[in-house]
Design brief:
Two copies of one chain form a homodimer. By secondary structure, chain A is an alpha+beta fold. Helix content of chain A is 27%, strand content 35%. Chain A is built from seven helices and eleven strands. In chain A, the strands form two sheets. The first copy, chain A, has a six-stranded antiparallel β-sheet. A three-stranded antiparallel β-sheet of chain A has the order 1-3-2. In chain A, a hairpin with a 2-residue loop joins strand 9 and strand 10. Chain A is elongated and about 65 Å long. Chain A starts with 7 loop residues before the first helix and ends with a strand. Strand 11 of chain A pairs antiparallel with strand 8 of chain B. The structure holds a DNA duplex.
Chain lengths: 232, 232
Amino acid sequence: MAEALTSWQAVADEVLARIRRRDWAPGDLIPNEVDLAGEMGCARTTVNRALRHLAEAGYLERRRKAGTRVALNPVRRATLRIPVIREEVEARGAHYDHALILREEGAPPLAVRSLLHLPPDRRLLHVVALHLADGAPYAHEDRWVDTETVPDFATLDLTQQSANAWLVQNVPYTRGALALSAMAADPDTAEALGCAPGAALFTLERTTWKAARPITWVRLAYPPGHRLTTDL
Amino acid sequence: MAEALTSWQAVADEVLARIRRRDWAPGDLIPNEVDLAGEMGCARTTVNRALRHLAEAGYLERRRKAGTRVALNPVRRATLRIPVIREEVEARGAHYDHALILREEGAPPLAVRSLLHLPPDRRLLHVVALHLADGAPYAHEDRWVDTETVPDFATLDLTQQSANAWLVQNVPYTRGALALSAMAADPDTAEALGCAPGAALFTLERTTWKAARPITWVRLAYPPGHRLTTDL
DNA sequence: ATCTGCAATATGTATGCACATAATATTTCT
DNA sequence: AGAAATATTATGTGCATACATATTGCAGAT
């Protein structure tokens, strides 16, 4: 008999190996926890931990009583690190800096207003900034903040601290949404980023809420060529 | 004394509530598992499960002996569902279809060749297809397949089955990478998607390997306005 | 003062057991 | 036959306990 697999990592590795080896093909039902535990020479708890892990990673699908089966499409989930720009820049060994481009109250565009479920006459604080890595444009930030939800924000000195850093530190959110997309560079953004107007920019939008009240909508636009990557 | 929190979900909810309420601020060290278990009236195992879950979700950072602290930056990870196009289309209640645009052997462009670590003279199978939702263009697929790694692919009838569906079902990969980006529509892609040349397209690139051998590189380009979303 | 090794400590994990829960399979009743 | 009640089963979870392991921090040596 094979050596006992007594750690959940070892069990997970073995199960993954069988999936990859096609011992268990996509869609197949695999043995139940009790049987696997017997075969591997460990407790059911350990098998459970391993299978739960693989299910979270998207390799398995589990349902009570119905059993555990190999996922039909191996990876449908990817966890990606949402860049915290300062850290991202500094991780490359570059010097981080940011410049405030605009800060004024105004009526948000329709797209923002409807995303935040705001009435037509509602005014927000509009903040535009540029993030720099070693002095070169790294990302363009376009943000609308609801100062009724976050009154302290109105008096903040944004030249000292980025809006994001302050909000993250001081305003806990209860709900957030993230959207990845592409946009054509408008003239202002193009100038800030130093690219051609109309260039294809990768964008990352984040909307956050505190209970039912919107906190902020922010869109980061990266210069052409920027890629957000992750392993599968 | 408050009601005992005897499920790991309840414990996780309570801890998350304290984080959001700023009882425990970002960077703070929170009580150790034994103390929390005492306070909540449950076993340490249960607290461990809850804290482990919150750490995986990015709310906490844990280190042995050093303890558990509230993450400085609440959410730096987002798990997003990688679209399996057919399912994505059908989930909207639309009819899925795909059309083969090109299928021929050739030398891949430099970018692909270097990503796959291939020698300069190496030829791959180039497949271009269009995914349709109710007859309208949904995504443009540009793919290079290494038929030395996947010989069966060469004889496949791609009008019946999408390349992705076949590969996913038949070729397990051991390593994969994902990159999200933006590109300007080249004339061919623009025509296929029915948008203007130069338009900003959201793209998703996937590279997969079987051990040290590349399987395929594929890039999906979506029409302007497409968004990939997830909750935070 | 600095380095080194050891003790203390918080998290990480394995195990056996019990019971909960969801979903399916079977039987019973009409 | 069809519906409703019931049994069965696989996963989900909680608990007490024990031991493993990574770090920190202190104490003693240099």
